[in-house]
Design brief:
By secondary structure, the chain is mainly alpha-helical. It has one domain. The protein has a two-stranded antiparallel sheet. α3 packs antiparallel against α4, α4 crosses α11 and α4 packs antiparallel against α12.
């Protein structure tokens, strides 16, 4: 009888590689989604977006190794955990990117991430004791709002953004020509030709600064039928694969749907591989490629609040994994795992990528396969590092049209919302009707930035980064309302484990 615990079992190399690759495939689509979203929100050139993807894959691998292998007595839960970028951080980062695009925006984002990573490392032991403030009614609501908030991105990928080149309407060329002619007449009146009088000065006043014409003509780049068709093919492929396959193929249905969509898009002339051909086969991931980060206290606070939510979710994942693998997870174990979330986020900020958490779909895969060895995830981490060092892999992902990603985004982000709903299904609404108020008001609060994005225009400017994220508002509302109605008595380990086992798609 072997005395080695199944978690610490070292499987044959070939089996480790195969199972590790399986874990990578399950998380790959979710891992590359965030750098694509944020990179395009920052309006970065394609090669820099590809660089973000490479950095993300590389750091996924590094942080996975730390979490599954362990590093000193302070870091690593030492369970079969795959680490990836959390979707919870997307909305605040997109808000930062929209406000300050380009390299300067990247510096602000990575400064906030580095700051939040350091703070998360320091507060990890405290967060591991905060379960009572995050019962399923709170975590389920927060995760549902995360999914609902992200759906906007997936839908915009399909049809086009409401502003910019893909807006629903464009300026009528005749109207633009008229305004240009009026401007020329006004300028001529102000500075008439030699010997000419200037009677027009009183007839054509100068055009006010900032005057523009509202779009009134349908934009052919918004919701083109060929793009909508490709998105439909991706969505249909994912659903068919999920329904008619089992096991591994079903688990990677999103990735397979993206691959099918890429083939269809290429056949329709919507995708080319020019940038892939120019990309190198091997390159190192360099830190701080956008220059020195800028540390804004409000942005750091915003990202820290995101990390607290992320660490609470990770706590549930760790407890669920402990239950699934038969290894007891105590408070010091939780603290080590949560410190690694913070360390991963710090590493991510330094290497031009984003906050990290345990990927729940991989936790679900442990339950499906029954393989409990943490060295499988070690193998997966090594594979992710290798992929991060191959720029051509990132260039292929970057080359995908947004319509391909849109079809997948509807599933990925919708499943996050569905996960929150499933967690809420464990909540007692019958005997505690106040729980309904918590969910209703928190979701409503989280929708404010989506429905009324200008609600903050008369509020102090410094508060804008903190309140323009619906996820932040919903999280704060859910915690406070739960304290008001239920006190701090909820959130037992058993409830947390049950809720985490529902979160297999986030």
């Amino acid at each position: 009888m072997s005395s080695v615990h199944p978690v610490d079992e070292r499987l044959p190399t070939g089996k480790l590689a195969a199972l590790g690759f399986q874990h990578v495939m399950v998380m790959y689509a979710g891992a590359v989604a965030v750098p694509l979203i944020v990179g395009r929100a920052l309006k970065l050139p394609p090669e820099q977006v590809a660089m973000l993807i490479s950095a993300d894959l590389f750091c996924c691998g590094i942080v996975t190794l730390i979490q599954s292998l362990g590093a000193t007595q302070w870091f690593g839960i030492r369970l079969p955990v795959m680490m990836g970028v959390t979707f919870a951080s997307v909305a605040p980062m997109v808000a930062m990117a929209n406000k300050t695009p380009g390299a300067e925006g990247a510096q602000l984002i990575f400064g906030a991430i580095i700051g939040a990573g350091i703070i998360s490392i320091l507060i990890a032991p405290l967060v591991s004791r905060m379960l009572r403030f995050f019962p399923p009614v709170v975590t389920g609501t927060i995760i549902a709002v995360i999914g609902i908030s992200l759906m906007r991105i997936g839908i915009n990928w399909i049809f086009g953004n409401p502003f910019g080149p893909t807006a629903p309407s464009i300026v009528n060329p005749d109207h633009a020509k008229w305004l240009s002619e009026v401007g020329s007449m006004a300028n001529a009146a102000v500075t008439p030709a030699a010997g000419a009088s200037a009677p027009l000065a009183s007839v054509v006043p100068a055009i006010p600064k900032g005057l523009s014409i509202v779009g009134s003509v349908p934009n052919p780049k918004y919701a083109p039928l060929n793009g909508v068709f490709v998105s439909f093919v991706v969505l249909a492929s994912i659903l068919l694969i999920a329904k008619y396959t089992k096991g591994f193929l079903s688990n990677i249905s999103v990735l397979l749907g993206i691959l099918i969509g890429g083939v269809v898009a290429y056949s329709m002339g919507m995708m080319n591989f020019d940038k892939v051909g120019k990309a190198a086969w091997f390159d190192f991931v360099e830190p701080l490629q956008f220059g020195m980060p800028k540390f804004d206290p409000i942005l750091i606070l915003t990202m820290t609040l995101v990390m607290i939510v992320v660490m609470i979710e990770s706590t549930g994942m760790f407890l669920a994994l402990g239950d699934m693998t038969g290894r007891k997870v105590d408070q010091p174990d939780l603290a080590r795992g949560l410190r690694t979330d913070g360390l991963g986020t710090l590493i991510g900020g330094i290497f031009n990528t984003f906050p990290y958490t345990s990927f729940s779909q991989n936790v679900g895969l442990v339950g499906v396969t029954g393989v409990r060895s943490r060295f499988v995830c070690v193998a997966g981490g090594i594979i992710m590092i290798v992929l991060g060092l191959i720029p051509k892999m990132a260039a292929v992902v970057e080359a995908l049209p947004t319509v391909v990603l849109g079809g997948a985004g509807v599933v990925m982000f919708g499943m996050v919302a569905a996960t929150g709903i499933r967690i809420l299904g464990t909540v007692d609404f019958k005997n505690n009707k106040n729980n309904a108020f918590i969910v209703a008001v928190s979701i409503g609060t989280g929708m404010i930035p989506l429905i009324a994005p200008n609600f903050k225009q008369w509020m102090p400017h410094d508060l804008h980064p903190l309140i323009e994220s619906g996820i932040m508002l919903a999280s704060i509302a859910a915690v406070l309302l739960n304290l008001f109605f239920n006190g701090a008595k909820g959130g037992s380990a058993e409830e947390t484990i049950a809720a985490a086992k529902q979160a297999d798609s986030h």
